[in-house]
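Class prep. Protein, please:
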Amino acid sequence: MLLSEQEQNEQMDNEDSPVVKNASSSQQPMELEPQPSRSSWSHVPTQSTAASNATTGSGSMSVHATPVNKIKVESTVTSAKGKGLSSFVVRTSTAEKCAFDEQVAKMIYATNSPFRLVEHPEFQKLLSMMRPGYRPPSRKEIADKFLPVVFQKEMDQCKEVLMDATVSMALDGWSNVHNEPIVCVTVTTEEGKIYLTDTVDTSGKPHTAEYLEELAVSSVRKTESDFGCRVRSIVTDNAANVAKMRRNLEQREDIDVITYGCSAHLLNLLAHDMEISNVKEHIVYVMKYFRNNHFALAEYRKEGGHSLVLPQETRWNTMCDSLKSYISNWSIMMKICETHRQVLDSVVHQKVTNVGLKRSAEDLLSRLEPIAEALDRVQRDGSSIADAVAAWKLLEEKLPCLDDRVLKQKFKARYDQAITPAHTLAYLLHPQYEGSSLSSKERDEALVYANTKYAHLVPTVMKFLLIVTVRVVSTISWTFTGLVVVMTDMAV
């Protein structure tokens, strides 16, 4: 039976419509047949349409969509297996948003980033890409809402870690962004972890030894009260007023701490003591010229010169790095100065071609390299005062300039500032060092200090030293016996 064109279209529409399976007999959600996408249909004329057009004499051929290949297309509905649209939406709960906001605030505080960073479009875009729909807190919330919350949580965490711990306290003076004098109080645990426990605004207060002494005592008591730890030592820099403050603390009976100066700071001062006159100034002058003069810099780069390092007063060991940089690139700078003598600054040419200046730089580097190694050793994580003694002892062996009487006196002065009887006692009792490099005078001073400060521990100290002595004697005895056997065999 022939159907009209309209009837054919209606039949095709009915065939292409979704089929509802068992809709009347099942309470299960309706499962729809997947509809072919429009791309799986080809627009071609049907035979009936062609015949109809031929019968009616129509000059144009009607085009209808008929399936060429019935390709099964997975729709979102069928792949969800009954899940709703909510399963495809990233939702952020109230608790999650609070956690995200707090972590953003921590990142801002920890990196010293400006609070306005959270309102930067690129930062918000980054967070949106990682968590669609999430918006970070405003800079006002970072400043007002989250700062006390994060601060209190950090303090609670410090209390948990420091409870019943034995710590070393460090006091150091700084200036904040408003140029106000601030004393920062930190404590270091036996594991080498550092915690800031207090900051004291000392505006309007003269930094005399007496004032700093009372500040140190109050900081010790406040730290022990707030965090439940035991402060057993205080370390500071080596300014005259602070050194006097440490001596005063040692004499007090209401506080039981040992005090000493920072070995890293003293090693940096020793590096200044070892400097050769005018070498630093001449080298800095040359390197600044090659860094800042466009022509000289272009030629320097063309010749393959490496980066020139300038010394920084607040960055210890940078003078050593600067000397290495100058010496390793000296031949390149010499070549440029000779090739372009008429173009470059005459003073720079004179300094670079001065071989005596290069020799002085090499001599200074030979002095500073052992100091830099010692400084790195005492600054590493977990370094103890026994390690500081070992670093100073090793430095005394390596320094090539101690044949000079004046330089030897300077070294001795810094060594005496750094090493106290507490240091030598720690070095004597350390299982790795066992007092191996101590002089007899230093050993006696350590034992006298132990008897004065820790009389109840003297029997334990003496027992340890006896064990060490017996082991050393046994080693010497076995070595001597072996030597005798070897000599006997040689004689036979």
Notes: The radius of gyration is 40 Å. Residues 14-80, 483-487 have pLDDT under 50 and may be disordered. The chain has five domains: 5-81, 94-151, 163-261, 273-419, 420-492. Strands lie at 41-44, 64-67, 166-175, 181-188, 194-201, 230-236, 258-261.
